[in-house]
Each structure stands twice: as C-alpha cells, then as structure tokens.
Amino acid sequence: MKQILIIEDDPEIIKLLEIHLSNLIYTTSKALDGEEGLNLALQNEYDLILLDLTLPTMDGVTICKRIREKKNTPIIMLTAKSEEIDRVLGLEMGADDYITKPFSIRELLARVKAVMRRTDVTKFEKKETSTITADGLLVDIERRKVLLNDKKIELSPKEFELLVLMASNPGRNYSRTELLDVIWGYNFEGYEHTVNSHINRLRAKIETDMAHPKYILTSWGVGYKFNEDIVT
Amino acid sequence: MKQILIIEDDPEIIKLLEIHLSNLIYTTSKALDGEEGLNLALQNEYDLILLDLTLPTMDGVTICKRIREKKNTPIIMLTAKSEEIDRVLGLEMGADDYITKPFSIRELLARVKAVMRRTDVTKFEKKETSTITADGLLVDIERRKVLLNDKKIELSPKEFELLVLMASNPGRNYSRTELLDVIWGYNFEGYEHTVNSHINRLRAKIETDMAHPKYILTSWGVGYKFNEDIVT
DNA sequence: AAAAAGTATCACAATAATATCACAGTACAA
DNA sequence: TTGTACTGTGATATTATTGTGATACTTTTT
C-alpha cells in the first residue's frame, strides 16, 4: 500500500484528493499548514507528497527545499499560477512535477501514477554533489563556504543563495522575477532592481574585473546566468 | 482540429488573433460582446476560450465565473490592466492564464500552446523540441544560446526572437508587418524598415557572406524566411 | 535603359536596461 | 545599549539595444 501525504490548506481540495486517491488503493495523510506538513514529511516515509504552493505558516517553496535537504520523497506541487516560468521553478527546487489549479482529477491521477512509476526505478539513486567548482571558484553548499583561489570569501545569505542557485545550473538564464521568487520568496513585494544590487555586491566579492565578469554573466533583456564555459 | 472561442469587442484584435491562430491549425469562433460570448461558451464545446476583461453588456470576470459554474473549458484572460491584483483575480475566478495588452502575438501563442498542452492529458509525456539545428547553426531556445560552428554568438533580444521565430518554421515567409505584430506586438507604431535593420544586424552575426545569406533569406516583395534546405 | 519599388547598410540619437553608489532601516550579537 | 553586518531602495551613471534617417544598392517594371 502506497502512502501519500497531502499538504494543503483548502479542506475542499483535500477531500477531493482523498476520495480519488483512495480509489487507487493509496492511503493518505494530510497536513493543513506548512509547519505540520514539513514535520510529517521528515518524520515518516511517504511514497509521494502533494504540496500546495501557498500555505499558512510556511510556503511551499521553502517546504520543498527543506524536505529535499533530508529526503528524496517524490513531490508534486499544486500551484495556482500557470506561467511557464513557475513550472521550471517548481522543478528546479526539487519537485518532481507540478500541476496548476484548477486541475482535473483525471490529470492529477495520471501524474501521480506517472511519478510512482518513475520513482520505483530511480528510488535508490544518489543525491547530487554538494560542492561546485569553476575555474578558481569553489562553492561548498553544505558548509556554506566559498573559496576564491584558495582564499576564503565571506558572502551574505542572499549573495550565497544567488551564487548557489545559479552555479547549480550553469548557462541557465534566471530572470529577476524568478530569482525573487526562489530566493526572496513567493510573496516578496519589492522592486526587481533589488536583484541588481545583490548581484552587484556578489560580483564585487568574487569577480576580479567588474567590467568583464567571469562567473556571473548578464543576459541582456533576460536576466543573469552562471558562466557555463568555466565549470570543471 | 482544436476549437477556440474569442470573446473580444475590438475587431482589429479579433482579426489579428484569427490570422495567427489559424496558422496553428486552430479554428476560431468569435463573440463581440459578453452576453453572446457566454451563450456560445455554454452551448458549445471549445478547447480554449480567449476572454477580454472589459466587454460590452457583461464584463469578463462575470463571464469567467459563469462559465466555470458549468464548464471546465480552459480560459485565457486578455486584460489591459497590468496591476498584480488583476492577475490574481483572474486566476482565482477560474481562468487558466492571463495576458496583458498590448501583448506580442508570440507571447500569446506560447500561452495558447501551453494551455493546450497542459489540458491534454494524453500528451503530457511528450516533450517539445527546444533546439533547432541547421548546417553550422544551433539554436537552443530554452537556454537562449546560439552556436555558429561551435562558436557562441551573442544576440540581442530582438535578434534572438527573430531567429527563433523564423527558424521554427523553415521555409515559411514572414512579412514585415507580421514580424512586427508577432515580435514587437500589435501596438507597435513604427516603420517596417525597422525590421530590415534588425535582420541586417542578425545576419551580420550569423551569416558568413552577407551578399549571399545562408540562413535568413529574402523573399522579394514578401518578406523574409529561414532557409528550409539546410535544416537537419 | 531609366524609373520605380523594394532592400541593404550604416551612423547616430533615443530609449531602455543595467551598474553603481550612498544611505537609511532592520535585525541581531556583544 | 552600541556596534555591525545585511538589506532594500532612491538617485545617478553607464551601457546595450533599438528606431530612424540618409544613402547606396538590387531587383522589377515601364
């Protein structure tokens, strides 16, 4: 019997999911807010987690990341936003799939089955490396440490997160909105040019020539990306 | 053949949408005011509805809600206001996506395709080709990267969009007006020969012999097209 | 062949996007 | 409390991109 955890604050949706998932011989647990959901997810072994993006006490993005730090449980995000960008975001933060509300039950069940099928095979695969190396730069994610030519660099939290996110996927373009969503959080109400400032400060610490950055490149009219040509 | 319903009071925009949607092998119906639109939406089975927010006789929000009471037809809202509030409203009332006027046709088509893909359960596993190859040219749409004989080429936003659009349909002729509508947006007030300049700059970056272009060909008296004889 | 129409090219100004910097508010530790 | 580091934002500087005019060049038409 497969165990599914539902983290979702709308009781209507929970009810809906429970009815249809139990038809497929899955048993379900539920959590109504983020904190509770995270605890359940970490303390038990589920086969799948259905995770709402917008939740009380802790938002879905954070929960997803926190779960991924400890566990490999497959996660399907439930989100109200349907922009293409969000899809990528959801997957990059470690979710296995996403589905946008309002969704049809048929569609959801198809994805649940698909994820179950997929993870049966890949269940025992190893997690990714926790250090990134590129030219003279070394980023130790676990220890939150950055070395530039063997010299230790002190980064602020935001700077570090920016670096890790972008360096984890060299060559991928990140729009300012995307970065705000992922690092600042979904509900950040502020200007996009806040990102500029942080990129600027990050560059000041790791780049030798500010006019010609080696690591953090700007994609004009798009956003920023980590230089893919220098990763080892 | 997919059926799309357009509920929109501006005949110009309807015409524009019809032209470009028919290129994608969609057939369209149209309604010029809210009442008519609602009736059509309820009495027929459409695959998608494009719904203007501000309409005579009945506004878009009401129509959207009324449709949702009876049907699950995917809806994309067309709205002139760009405030964040309106977006959330649009989604909460049951719309699948929204797009703010003035929009570029390219953007709209992308969303239409995305919604179609999403709602079509059977096609979920299918992946879309995100790279185009032709002779020495490689266009990675997802990563916004262009390689010419394994050498990276930096393109400006407009140049990149022109290339992607035309390379996606090799051999198809694009008039200057069409390119302006699709890439610049239908509201662009400017000269057609703006396109010439951008094509010129694009060519300067990817063509080796400007006098005899290999990729971007000129259709005399018509417009431009991507050379269909070299795609792999 | 000349005129006309459409296209190519280029330089330059206007625009929009990004970079930089200073400063104030905040949080947090000593 | 004071001090310190971090962060968001305004102001301003600096760039890259873009639209346009002028002009040269082709192709088509007459």
**Largest interchain contact:** A-B, 21 and 20 residues
* Spatial separation of the terminal alpha carbons of chain A: 44 Å
Spatial shape of chain A: elongated
Please give the domain count of chain A: 2
Rg of chain A:
19 Å
The CATH C-level name of the largest domain in chain A is Alpha Beta
Q: Please state the second-level CATH architecture of the largest domain in chain A.
A: 3-Layer(aba) Sandwich
Q: What is the CATH topology of the largest domain in chain A?
A: Rossmann fold
Q: What is the share of helical residues of chain A?
A: 40-55%
- CATH superfamily annotation of the largest domain in chain A: Response regulator
- Which stretches of chain A of 5+ consecutive residues score pLDDT under 50? 82-88, 121-128
Strand portion of chain A = 15-25%
What's the SSE pattern of chain A? EHEHEHEHEHEEEEHHHEE
List its traits:
DNA-binding; Rossmann fold; 5-stranded parallel beta sheet; elongated; 4-stranded antiparallel beta sheet; alpha/beta; 232 residues; homodimer; 8 helices; Arc Repressor Mutant, subunit A
Task: Provide a quick synopsis of the model.
The structure is a homodimer of 232-residue chains. The first copy, chain A, is built from eight helices and eleven strands. The first copy, chain A, is α/β, with parallel strands linked by helices and 232 residues long.
